[in-house]
Each structure stands twice: as C-alpha cells, then as structure tokens.
Amino acid sequence: MGRIITVALVFVGLTALATLALYDNGRLALVWGDWVVEMSATLAVALLIALLVAAYLFTRLAVWLWTFPRRWRERRAQKRLARAEAGMGQGLMAVEHGDWRAAERALIKSARYSDNGVMYYLAAARMAHNQGARDRRDRYLAEAREKYPQDYVTIALVEARLRRDEAPEEARALLQALVDEGVDTPAVLAEYADLLAGQEDWATLRALLPKLKRRKAMDRDALHQLEARMWAGLLQQAEDREALENIWGYLDSRWWRDPRVLAAYVTRRRELGDETGLAHLIEKALRRQWDARLAYLYGLIDDGPAFERLKKVQKWLRQHGDDPVLLLTAGRLACQAQLWAQAQDYLRQSLRLKPAAETFATLARCYEREGEQEQAALTWQAGLEALGGQETPLLEARSSS
C-alpha cells in the first residue's frame, strides 16, 4: 500500500513539473559577484529536485557504509547462532536415542559457535560421563573453566554432580568451597545438603540448615524430610545418654511426634540401656499417627509388664489387623506373657501376610520357651525353605503404613 502511494505521488509530481515546463515563461537569475546564471523556473525546480534526490542517496550510502561493520558482525553472529542451535538440536536428538557418543560430538562441535558455549561443554561432559569416558569428561570441564571463568559456580556445581558417585570427597570439596566463598544459590545449597545427608554428616548439615531455609533451596516437603533425617541421624550418633537428651530436649515438640525421629530416639535409648518411659512415648505417638516402625519397637522395649502392653496392641489390631509388623509385636508380647497359643497364632498370621526371617525366628524361639523343641526345629526348617536361605531385610517389615 505504501509503495502504491509513493508511485502515485511521484507521478503527480512529474505531471506537475511537465505542466509547469509547458506553460511557464518565467526566468530565474542567480548572481554571485561577476557571475550571473539565468535559467527557466522549470529547470530550477528540476535541478532542486535532483539535488535533493542526490543528497538523499548520498546520505543513505553514507549510513550504509557506516553501519556495514556492525551489520556484518550481526550477520556472522546469526550464522553462528544458527549453527549452534543446529548442533544442540542434533545433540538432543541423539540423547533421546541414547546415543551418548553422537550427542557428545554434536555438542562439542557446536560449542565454539555459541555465545553461551559453557552449557555445550557441560552437556558434552555429561555425555562423556555417561559413557564412562572420565578423561574426556575432565577435559571438557577444564576447557569450560579456562574459556568461561565467569561461570565457575555453574561449572563447579556440574562437576560436583558428575564426581559425586566416584569421588564423593572431591565433590564435597567443590561444593564446600562455593559455600565458604558465600555462594548461596538454591541449587548449590540443595546439592551440598543432599551430599552431606548421603555421607551422614549431620553436624555439618545442621549448621547449613538456616541457609537452606532462608534461601528456600528446597520445597517444604523435601526440606521437612531432610530435617527429619538429620535429627534422626544426630540422635543415632549421640555418644552417651547426656548427649542424647540434650539433642532431644533441644527439638521442637513437633519433632517428638515425628515417627522417624522418635524411632531414632527410642532405638538409641535402648542401645544405651535405658528404656524407662519409652512405651508411653510410643503409645502417645501412635495415637496421633500410625507408624509400623514404632509398632515394631514397641515389641522390643522392656518397659512395663508384657501383658499390659499386649492389651494395648490388641486394641491397635482392631484397626490394623492386617499389619504383619503389628502382629509380630503382638506375638512377641504374648510369648513374653507366656500366652503360648495366642503368641503362636499372632505370629502365624504375620507369616501368612508377609513371610520374614525375623518372624520365623520369633515363632521358633516361642516354641523353645514353651518346651516344644521339635516344633521349634520344624519352624526353623520351614523358615529356611520359605525364604530360600535369604533373610528378608527388617527395614521392609518396619516400613510405614
């Protein structure tokens, strides 16, 4: 539309100029010192228009020459970007097909074309790592550090993730150096916290916890789970009863009700030889939230008459009668109370729901205490045959309901 209007204006202008040339008899004189230039008005207008057009074209040419270097650089940058994007696309396609080697080649080839080449080097390092090519992985990381020193935080974070399984101490040193330098990005803090938890360095994690909360490095549920693991780990690592009680007393009351934390406290108290009051703690916790770990520990502690505790368990069985762990606990307490038939019935029910080496062993010992040595031997044999000589991990039996 704009082009049509321009052509129309030019046509009208030329028509007006032609009309003026036909009917105009005027003269235009220009005097400069001894020089006098005379021309028709039409010629003067034509020369003026030609001068304006020439000035316009000269200005356009000057601007084009002035901006040519910048446009050349932009064009080259666009070509480099297109090559980089093409290489990234090839690399991602190779990743989807599980061809780590092809992805590595495409990414490292395209790295020199991208303004953000550090990500190409890091991605290529991951691909080399997936192939077990540690030398190439380390070379890519070294090149990334050399060419992009300003991105040292990202490079160190990726390197720590790649080295974590094979060299956890090196990974920890990388992350700790970042934290000591004051780097508190959520990604760095979350990775460092997860590594500390994996190494069960609960004391260091406890010192890091305020930063994790302040920077919101994890979502609420993940942070809660991590903190529960931390407090449970600290309780399990308590050297003596005083240290254990100091940690327990420091905790908010909400952690006293957390099954994982309470289970750790109960277990460590048992190991330190003091089980007084533990039954009440477990009963109080199970009234709020059912947890098979606590039900399991309830049958192991020596805190009060077994018969009284069995009555509590029988109430729980009305709601959790299909829990093999609770049935194991009921069988243990009934056996301690010398209610042989009842104990054996509970234990057999538990075995029907989940055959476990510990349940077979408890049933066999119950027969032995009753004096039924032959039946005890048969139970040991039945356990070996049922489990094929492989002991079922007790952790499975104590998983939360």
Structure explained in plain terms:
The protein has 401 residues and is mostly helical. It has a domain at 275-401: Serine Threonine Protein Phosphatase 5, Tetratricopeptide repeat. 76% of the residues lie in helices and 3% in strands. The protein has 21 helices and 2 strands. The protein has helices spanning 2-23, 41-96, 100-110, 117-130, 134-147, 152-163, 168-180, 186-198, 202-215, 220-236, 241-250, 253-256, 259-271, 278-288, 292-298, 306-317, 324-336, 340-353, 357-370, 373-387, 394-397; strands at residues 27-32, 35-40. Strands 1-2 form a two-stranded antiparallel sheet. A hairpin with a 2-residue loop joins strand 1 and strand 2. It is rod-shaped, with a radius of gyration of 42 Å. It starts with a helix and ends with a helix. Residues 397-401 have low confidence and may be disordered.
Key traits:
single chain; 401 residues; mainly alpha; Serine Threonine Protein Phosphatase 5, Tetratricopeptide repeat; 2 strands; disordered C terminus
Write the layout of secondary structure elements.
Layout: H1 2-23, E1 27-32, E2 35-40, H2 41-96, H3 100-110, H4 117-130, H5 134-147, H6 152-163, H7 168-180, H8 186-198, H9 202-215, H10 220-236, H11 241-250, H12 253-256, H13 259-271, H14 278-288, H15 292-298, H16 306-317, H17 324-336, H18 340-353, H19 357-370, H20 373-387, H21 394-397
Antiparallel strand pairs: 1-2
Helix pairs in contact: 1-2, 2-3, 3-4, 4-5, 4-6, 6-7, 7-8, 8-9, 9-10, 10-11, 10-13, 13-14, 14-15, 15-17, 16-17, 17-18, 17-19, 18-19, 19-20
